[in-house]
């Protein structure tokens, strides 16, 4: 739960250049967060690797979907951000990532574990909107 309305959280999540300033899980996020655009993310989990992602869907201020992976759908990760309004101007924020494709069993063994990074990301959203108030 985030102590801010969905639009405030949405504005934070869609400001690519600001990510490294509020999110300790992200080294950099380049590009424009808009449907069909490519963004380049570098994570603290793997700081020498750039993940090229496509912004697949944006339903402001409810849902955003990014995806990336290998050509031909051999391996694909889909990250979904969901924001639901709660009483008192708060937001239920969730983020999930699903990996799939024929090479998923092999790739899942070599892709870094993102569990801690995801927790940091969620905590950073909460802290960033708290600090903006």
UniProtKB/TrEMBL annotation:
InterPro entries registered for this protein in UniProt: Polyketide_cyclase/dehydratase (IPR019587), START-like_dom_sf (IPR023393)
Top-rank lineage group of the source organism: Bacteria
Alphabetical list of CDD domains matching this protein: SRPBCC_4
Pfam families: Polyketide_cyc2
Name by which UniProt lists this protein: SRPBCC domain-containing protein
Annotated organism of origin: Pseudonocardia petroleophila
